[in-house]
TrEMBL record, chains A, B:
This is GTPase-activating protein, putative.
Length: 119, 119
């Protein structure tokens, strides 16, 4: 049920490589990826879950309202992360020349469908 | 020397509230902020330094190239963070209705001046 939505996110985002719905424990519920050499999606999942946990903790301490979105840009990729519920979030990995604005829009838009699927 | 650049970043970013150059130890070299109630900039600095350390560690494990930029959006603020050197980074906090695209552009542009000032 998640796969179709994740595929839409990747295919329509402009430069999307992979997308996953996962828990803060680093375990993915479902994922969709384009073939891309040299990416260990499972490792990425676990590591970004750790980052997200740290961000979530920080945001709670600072009392600046719920965490909505995190973007991490490195030399090779941009990873967009959007909180879905208290337990789950969605990630979208873009290649270096991905369309950041369009990807953010797609992720925000499809979050509603993902939340419905989670409910 | 940093203050003028940080002021430029805040004033010209469109919705900017505060900006700081700080180390991964959470100690700010310099900062500039508009008066804004209910923000403890020192606490924010230390907490975001912890987040950045976690992101940096993750990016190194995943070998996806150097960390360049991190954006964290919550209900009340968006915090943009850009790596300057191995030891220092710059932050820009935007209000809820800040111009994200312009802020990213300003931070990228002024990073060069900040790196020069750090050298």
């Amino acid at each position: 049920m998640f796969k179709n939505i994740l595929q839409d996110i990747v295919e329509q985002s402009g430069g999307g490589i992979s997308s996953a719905v996962m828990g803060y424990d680093g375990i993915a519920i479902d994922q969709y990826e384009k073939p891309c050499e040299g990416i260990d999606l499972q490792l990425i999942a676990v590591e970004y879950a750790n980052v997200l946990k740290e961000v979530k903790r920080t945001v709670e301490i600072l009392e600046t309202g719920d965490m909505e979105e995190v973007a991490i840009r490195t030399e090779r990729f941009t990873v967009l992360i959007r909180a879905l519920t208290d337990e789950y979030f969605v990630t979208l990995t873009l290649g270096r020349n991905g369309n950041f604005g369009k990807a953010r829009y797609m992720l925000a838009k499809e979050s509603f469908r993902l939340r419905e699927a989670l409910a």
